[in-house]
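Try it yourself: sequence plus 4'-phosphopantetheine, in.
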Amino acid sequence: MTTPRSIVAVYPGSFDPVTRGHEDVARRTRRVCDRLIVAVAESSSQSKRHLFPVPERLEIMREVFADDHRIECVSFSGLLVDFARRMDAQFIVRGLRAVSDFEYEFQMAQMNRELWDGAETVFLAPDVANSFLSASLVREVAALGGDVGSFVSAPVLKRLRRRFS
Ligand code: PNS
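Structure, out:
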């Protein structure tokens, strides 16, 4: 008799900061895996100016997901596929908010599979209420003094207020 292997998923991103949309995708993924690794990339494929340094993003995310011990937040450097392979992940998860996300996501999924044949990418749709949300918009609105209280959870809001007060 074979022992069932636990299902491990990696959810990579910049998470600068983690939004309610990211949270939604992470919690939906947790329903279909045993262990979810939410992984902050130290090198992103898109060059962006960052708001929070990686250690602070991780600290925030660990507070956000503190209620679920099967969600681990870690950072990784180098290629996502190398990290996913080291973690023995069966799949990589990414959120798809709209058709406009598809091209970039599809390109990454195909490249990742070229780099490692075991890289299966699964796309999850967030709740429609979060379909317009992005970390870059949250950063911009918060920097300009707008209320982002319904887009991020309390640990994020606290850091944003501290940063822009
Ligand atoms: O949240 P983002 O910024 O859209 O996430 C992009 C991310 C971090 C998933 C992507 O840039 C990535 O996988 N970076 C790690 C380096 C890597 O493997 N690059 C090749 C991707 S095909």
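One thing you can check immediately is this: Residues 8-164 form a domain with the Rossmann fold fold (CATH 3.40.50.620).
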